[in-house]
Sequence to fold (129 residues):
Amino acid sequence: MALVLASDYITQARTLLQDLVQPYRYPDVTLLEALNNCWLEVTRVRPDIVLNARYSTSSKASDQTVNLDGLVFIGANTSATVPMPVQYQMSVVYYMIGFAQLQDNEDVQDSRAASLLTKFTAQLLGVQA
Fold:
């Protein structure tokens, strides 16, 4: 599955969370919040990704990336393009899943969420994960 739009990331995260039946356990708002927080982490850990998206003339996101530091995906606009290179797209999904699972009250989810968030950072930094 190609991950281009915010809705694509939500669908992929929902699939891995096994949250496919409405009413969803994790609402779209929660997953979009996770995507926004992920973007802030990307700007902190890998600012080169942000700069590449900002100055890429071939990127569909180039129009919306004038101020990438404040790029926000909102519920009404799940058709917004997420300017992530292909090799890091699943890392974003891992972050979204980890973020969502941190909100659960189950102790088992905490360790899975922590490992997914660690995997996100390790993959962004190119460390074996």
Q: What stands out?
A: Confidence is low (pLDDT under 50) at residues 61-65. The radius of gyration is 14 Å. Residues 41 and 75 are 20 Å apart (CA to CA).
